Amino acid sequence: MPIHPEAPVTCHACDAEIEGEPAGHGMLLFVRGDDVLREELPLCERCALAVSMTALDRLGFEEEEG
Ligand SMILES: [Zn+2]
User: Fold this and answer.
1) Domain-embedded: residue 24
2) How many distinct structural domains can be found in the chain?
């Protein structure tokens, strides 16, 4: 059982409150000396989509939209 009181999960990008499970996660990398820390940040559906589309765009995929 979680000890923490239930805190609302908010989107890291737009600060919107997220109901239920976050639609996606943004990944942050911190470099500390020789260590690399990874932190996952919750994103709402909208921002998760935007991030994934940006990633796809970077990879050179073309997304067809109707
Ligand atoms: Zn968002």
Assistant:
1) yes
2) 1
